[in-house]
Amino acid sequence: MTNTEEEAYEFPHRHLLGLRDYSADDILHVLDQAENFLEILNRPIPKIPTLRDKTIVNLFYENSTRTRLSFEMAQKRMGADVVNFSSSASSVSKGESLKDTIRNIESMKIDMVVVRHPSPGAAHFISRCVDAAILNAGDGAHEHPTQALLDLFSIRQKTGRLKGLKIVIIGDITHSRVVRSNIIGMTRLGVEVTLCGPRTMMPLFVEELGVTISYDLEACLEWCDVAMALRIQLERQEGGLFPSQREYHERFGIKKRHLKEFPDFTIMHPGPINRGVELESEVADHPRSIILNQVTNGLAVRMAALYLLSGGMRS
């Protein structure tokens, strides 16, 4: 999208519930705006008053470190009034429903809600209950749109393009909300996607999403431009999805020797990393890894999303 096209582009969305509702142009517009905010973050004083007089609630029903801190920092860098809500320290622990909670919060005159919830569709439900703009920070194993946007931004920053790239996503595909949003965004932008992992962690009918399935890690690493390892969700291992972490690492962990054998692919991980499981430490810390870039870029992308959903670039 050229500068002229960007200036004329009318962003059509009130919410960011998932990438399924976003066109290729919508996604690229968010990424282009994030470029501007990354430049702001690199200034000596990385603050702007864009969201001054806006009140934003971070409504987190699940534990989070990176996503919550990233959103909160983005909001404060833009001058918003920020309210952090934790379900464990609220009336939710007394049995209050999600609908009652959000309606009580809205009565305090809020403008935006960032929500993370263990139930798929929670962000969509909240958007029907209140008038505030809703940003989905992860709903169950459904979607995590801002993570996918920051991944796309980081890949474009590293390679200079998205269309035509070959990307393999490795790991616990079934339980990952990150992979669902990434598949939607990547395929919409012309990226060729392969999923790689144990059969027990591969959902049924996933090929209908326009991706290829592989169970051969080394073949994928030889093929790809970018390898994105997903966190193995250790809290689910009691279900016997894989015999042991050691066996998982042997078959699907990216190792230091892979960097020598396949010298071209870039390494990504949405975090947190289980070192020695998805990635050897030498891989996570290697110059070909852009994992820390993903963290920085997440701040810029979330600033861009907040800006656009607050009315920026909308006539």
Can you describe this structure in just a few lines?
The protein folds into two domains: 3-144 and 296-309, Aspartate/ornithine carbamoyltransferase (Rossmann fold, 3-Layer(aba) Sandwich); 145-294, Aspartate/ornithine carbamoyltransferase (Rossmann fold, 3-Layer(aba) Sandwich), CATH 3.40.50.
Per DSSP E runs of 2 or more residues, the count of β-strands stands at 9
CATH architecture of the largest domain: 3-Layer(aba) Sandwich
Radius of gyration of CA atoms, rounded to a whole number: 20 Å
**Approximate shape:** globular
Whole-number total of structural domains? 2
What is the beta-strand fraction? 5-15%
Major sheet strand order? 7-6-5-8-9
List the helices and strands in order.
HHEHEHEHEHEHEEHEHHEHH
The CATH topology assignment of the largest domain is Rossmann fold
Structural class: alpha/beta
Largest beta sheet, briefly? 5 strands, parallel
Distance between the termini: 19 Å
Number of H- or I-type helical stretches? 12
Q: What is the helix fraction of residues, given as a range?
A: 25-40%
User: Regarding CATH, which class of the largest domain?
Assistant: Alpha Beta
**Mean pLDDT across all amino acids:** 91
Low-confidence stretches: none
Task: Explain what the structure shows.
With 315 residues, the protein is an alpha/beta fold. The protein has 2 domains: 3-144 and 296-309, Aspartate/ornithine carbamoyltransferase (Rossmann fold, 3-Layer(aba) Sandwich), CATH 3.40.50.1370; 145-294, Rossmann fold (3-Layer(aba) Sandwich), CATH 3.40.50. The relative contact order is 0.16. It is built from 12 helices and 9 strands. Strands 7-6-5-8-9 form a 5-stranded parallel sheet, sandwiched between helices. The protein has a 4-stranded parallel sheet with strand order 2-1-3-4, sandwiched between helices. Helix content is 39%, strand content 14%. It is globular, with a radius of gyration of 20 Å.
